Amino acid sequence: MKRYTLLLAISLFGTTLLLGQKQKTTQESIPKPKKEQKEAVVRTTDTLPPNEKYGLRIGADISKLIRTSIEENYTGLELVGDYRIYKTLYAAMELGNESIIKDLPNINTTTKGSYIRIGGDVNLYDNWYGMQNSIIAGIRYGMASFSQELNSFTITRDNEGIAVFPQDTRNDGDPQLGKVEDLTASWIELVFGLKAEIASTNIYLSASIALRRTLQQKQPGSFKNLYIPGFGLTNDFSKIGVGYNYTITYLLPFYKKKR
């Protein structure tokens, strides 16, 4: 009995499968209505190059936010923006504020100030269909206004260059200690980076590196600038500095143009 039941079930399954396949073939052979044919024609036009978005992209440097959260001696915020003015040309600007304590073996200083960098970027990348990513090369002019405070210093040699032992550390009461206001600096920089849109959401992630050269800087007097807001670390043997940033931005599209 079970044998006949199994054969009957297999026969019914095979018949159902054949009938379904025949119905599907019949449906496919029926001509499509004119409305569906029109929709198919419209879909073929979607393969044409899409319009590209032009607008203002604004955001922040997330690397400075991360440093602020994990480094005890650093606080910083940088806002970034660019505006697309031509197919491959963007006007760009960054502005921010930094406060940092530099604790070196013989000196401890606090730097506080604001800065702005203005310039432009060129997109060197020919995007794939529907994408708006960038490989950028750009130039900036930077300016900073800041203060320097000498918290402590250590005398290791006397006026004749002879080593002092024990070393004399001054951290209170010395006339050289204190804050110097109204310091300024300016520089020029070359920027290279990548910008990538996240799945057509108008949200962009970017990473860039900047090669900087100071044009002028006002020194505190009793010591030299160890750090310039917006520029970064300085040194005694070169005017060159290096910076980097990682940003997240959002594009506010104002209009579209054909590619």
What labels describe this entry?
disordered N terminus; two-stranded antiparallel ribbon; eight-stranded antiparallel beta barrel; Porin; 19% helix; alpha+beta; 259 residues; 56% strand
List the helices and strands and how they pair.
Blueprint: H1 2-29, H2 34-45, E1 51-61, H3 62-70, E2 74-84, E3 89-104, E4 107-123, E5 134-157, E6 163-170, E7 178-197, E8 203-217, E9 227-228, E10 232-233, E11 240-258
Tell me about this structure.
- There is one protein chain.
- The chain is an alpha+beta fold and 259 residues long.
- It has 2 domains: 2-45; 52-258, Porin (Beta Barrel), CATH 2.40.160.
- Helix content is 19%, strand content 56%.
- The longest helix is centred in the first third of the chain and has 28 residues, at 2-29.
- It is elongated, with a radius of gyration of 33 Å.
- It starts with a helix and ends with a strand.
- The relative contact order is 0.17.
